[in-house]
Amino acid sequence: MALFKKRQTGKPGEWYYCLVHHKVEEGPECPAKDRFGPYSSPEEAAHAMETAEERNLEWQNDPKWNDKTGENGEADGSTPSP
User: Fold this and answer.
1) Is residue 38 reached through a cis peptide bond, with omega within 30 degrees of 0 on the bond before it?
2) Residue 76 Cα to chain centre, angstroms
3) DSSP state of 70
4) Which regions of 19-63 does DSSP assign to beta strands (E)?
5) CA distance 66 to 82
6) What ranges does the record give for the region Disordered, renumbered to this chain (predicted)?
7) What is the predicted pLDDT for the residue at 44?
8) I need a labelling partner for 29 at 20 to 30 A (CA). Which of 3, 5, 6, 23 fits?
9) For residues 38 and 32, what is the distance between their CA atoms, to the nearest angstrom?
10) What is the value of pTM for the model shown?
11) pLDDT of residue 40
């Protein structure tokens, strides 16, 4: 028997979207590595995947983070070697 049981984080009243079970959960049902949240309502948690997709699209289209090509046309923005 383990002396110290690792407690999952989260509290009742906090809502999460479980990436393993693909469902909304209240409190610490699944490990933190397998969930998005916390959200303030079950409805908000139910839309977690859509929210993540929207944020990913915003990030991909943000000119401050779009580093597909540098100023000199190189993929990583480094200076080409002679």
Assistant:
1) yes
2) 25
3) -
4) 23-26, 35-39
5) 26
6) 29-82
7) 96
8) 3
9) 10
10) 0.63
11) 93
The first and second tokens of residue 30, run together, are 């699944």
By the 10 Å C-beta count (0-12 exposed, 13-18 middle, 19+ buried), 4 is classed as exposed
* Nearest-5° Cα angle at 40, 38 to 21: 50
Domain borders along the chain are 15-60
Name the residue with tokens 């909304």: 24
What's the rounded mean pLDDT across residues 51-59? 94
Residue 45 in contact with residue 22, Cβ under 8 Å?
no
How confident is the model at residue 6, as a pLDDT?
61
**Which residue in the block uniquely carries the two structure tokens 């923005």?**
77
Query: In the structure encoding, which two tokens stand for residue 35, read together?
Result: 């969930």
Residue length, the chain?
82
Cα dihedral sign, 35-41-43-49: negative
